[in-house]
């Protein structure tokens, strides 16, 4: 019987190669097992070689990319100043009203800046400056423009553009989705000069020192607090953090029970972290009502710590839509009844208060709020809340301001009285490492002092260990003055659940048991 040549069905291999492989049939119609075995071995060898080749190619590509990045960082660098001037011709994305645009700028995805939100404008004027040191000359600036949307959890995308850091004034087309170029134009100027200190870290933020104050009317409503400062958070972008702290970070304290409950690996810790993440997002949400500013002098710093208004009238952020219709109506009634002059008699005086802070490992920002802020009652750790559950920070603790006679004859709130104008005395910042969650190394306190000195111009800074007796006395004097002379309630000095308080976790959609677990409760079966 003559042999017939047969075609074995197509064999598809992971490397997308197709083989049509002939085989010789054995008498009786059977196939030669030896031939099939050899074929399988050949195919396996081909696949193995292909995979090895792909692995080598991927490795080579990674090596080339790594080498290019290294060459870029070792190449010539400049100090860059970018002035974001304005945009024009932005599209109207909202059905009602104009856009509330802001932008996010990045240099090589290594350092970024977020602008202020400009309300109801299709031709926003920013005139915001951004300085970055030691930027490779081959770097690229990428900018995204967004529309702050108070009705959805995500902001609307307007468009983007990119450009080199070559010096000059530029007017750039904003490219919308699907390469549409009808999204307006953006004007900016770039100045460059040779790096003043090439030994410093690359992409080093150099100012100006910007801050934002985040008001949350929903938090005020839920905590039943009428003092806007007690449901406010601040974020300040510090300069030279890598210069001072270099590669030193503070990891969460593995020996601290509250930290263990947050950063553990079990389902309870996962639920707690979900609650903290949601709380952080609410407290630091960007909205059209946020306060923004630049720190250039001691006077700018001092304004941050003035008492301010007692009621939240006029502070209407993106949180209001989270209230029920009934709650919104009640809040509007409160707004309508509030007198325009209803502010603390100490609104423009430095408030005797203690603040909880962290210095973020993610963006080198100083984040803080009053230690007595009522929203802390719902969370296991004040510092973890500010850090958004980051496993490490640059540093953390508490700080407060205190007055000092210009002739150094006295120092502290215990020797101060309100007949003295705030400008008639000098002011000190006492900052410490009082954080159980991260338990910062006290050996880094001199480094901390240097950094705060650099960023708080015109103020004297003392960095003290949390066990320092002088620090404890100063904190007590600050709180005593607040109680005895400024009308501050005792329950506002530490997190305290007000009558009528509602958990922040409820409107965030987090399970109700989380707060109970955070405070050390036993998880119900």
- Residues in helix, %: 25-40%
The N- and C-terminal alpha carbons lie at a distance of: 78 Å
User: What value does the average pLDDT take?
Assistant: 81
Q: Based on helices, strands and strand pairing, what is the structural class?
A: alpha+beta
Estimate nothing, just give the exact number of structural domains. 2
Quote the beta fraction.
25-35%
**Unreliable segments (pLDDT under 50, ≥5 consecutive)?**
1-21, 220-225, 310-324, 333-341, 496-505, 507-525
Using only CA atoms, what is the Rg?
30 Å
In one word, what is the shape? globular
3D architecture notes:
Helix 4 crosses helix 5 (267-283). 26% of the residues lie in helices and 26% in strands. The protein is built from 11 helices and 22 strands. Strand 18 and strand 19 (365-370) form a beta hairpin. By secondary structure, the protein is of the alpha+beta class. It folds into 2 domains: 74-206, C2 domain (Immunoglobulin-like); 210-518, no CATH class. The longest helix is centred in the N-terminal third of the chain and has 42 residues, at 33-74. Residues 1-25 form the signal peptide. Residues 60-178 form the C2 domain. Keywords: Signal.
């Amino acid at each position: 019987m003559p042999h017939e040549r047969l075609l074995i069905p197509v064999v598809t291999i992971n490397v997308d190669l197709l083989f049509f492989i002939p085989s010789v049939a054995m008498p009786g119609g059977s196939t030669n097992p030896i031939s099939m075995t050899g074929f399988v071995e050949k195919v396996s060898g081909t696949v193995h070689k292909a995979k090895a080749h792909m692995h080598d190619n991927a490795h080579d590509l990674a090596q080339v990319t790594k080498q290019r990045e290294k060459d870029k960082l070792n190449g010539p660098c400049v100090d860059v100043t970018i002035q974001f001037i304005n945009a024009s011709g932005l599209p109207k994305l909202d059905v009602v009203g104009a856009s509330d645009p802001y932008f996010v700028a990045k240099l090589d995805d290594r350092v970024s800046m977020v602008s202020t939100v400009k309300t109801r404008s299709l031709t926003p004027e920013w005139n915001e400056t951004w300085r970055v040191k030691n930027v490779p000359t081959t770097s690229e600036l990428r900018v995204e423009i967004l529309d702050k949307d108070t009705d959805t959890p995500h902001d609307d995308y307007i468009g983007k553009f990119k450009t080199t850091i070559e010096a000059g004034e530029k007017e750039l087309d904003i490219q919308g989705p699907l390469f549409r170029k009808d999204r307006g134009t953006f004007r900016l100027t770039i100045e460059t000069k040779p790096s003043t200190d090439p030994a410093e870290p690359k992409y080093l933020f150099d100012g100006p020192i910007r801050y934002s104050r985040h008001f949350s009317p929903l938090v005020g409503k839920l905590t039943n607090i009428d003092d806007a400062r007690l449901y406010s958070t601040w974020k300040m972008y510090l300069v030279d953090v890598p210069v001072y702290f270099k590669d030193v970070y503070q990891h969460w304290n593995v020996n601290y029970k509250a930290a263990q409950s947050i950063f553990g690996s079990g389902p309870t810790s996962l639920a707690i972290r979900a609650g903290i993440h949601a709380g952080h997002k609410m407290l630091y949400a960007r909205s059209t009502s946020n306060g923004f500013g630049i720190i250039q002098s001691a006077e700018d710093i001092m304004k941050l710590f003035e008492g301010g208004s007692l009621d939240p009238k006029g502070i209407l952020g993106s949180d209001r839509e989270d209230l029920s219709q009934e709650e919104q109506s009640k809040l509007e009634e409160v707004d309508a009844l509030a007198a325009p002059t209803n502010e603390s008699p100490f609104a423009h005086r430095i408030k005797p208060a203690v603040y909880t802070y962290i210095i973020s490992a993610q963006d080198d920002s100083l984040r803080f709020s009053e230690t007595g802020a009522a929203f802390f009652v719902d969370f296991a750790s004040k510092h973890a809340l500010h850090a958004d559950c980051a496993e490490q920070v640059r540093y953390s603790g508490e700080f407060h301001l205190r007055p000092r006679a210009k002739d150094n004859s006295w120092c502290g709130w215990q020797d101060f009285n309100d007949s003295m104008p705030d400008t008639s005395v000098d002011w000190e910042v006492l900052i410490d490492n009082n954080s159980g969650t991260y338990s910062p190394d006290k050996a880094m306190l001199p480094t901390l002092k240097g950094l705060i000195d650099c960023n708080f111009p015109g103020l004297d800074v003392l960095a003290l260990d949390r066990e320092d007796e002088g620090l404890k006395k100063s904190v007590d004097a600050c709180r005593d003055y607040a109680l005895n002379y400024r009308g501050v309630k005792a329950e506002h000095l530490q997190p305290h659940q007000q009558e009528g308080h509602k958990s922040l976790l409820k409107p965030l959609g987090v399970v109700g048991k989380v707060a109970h677990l955070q405070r050390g409760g036993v998880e119900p079966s």
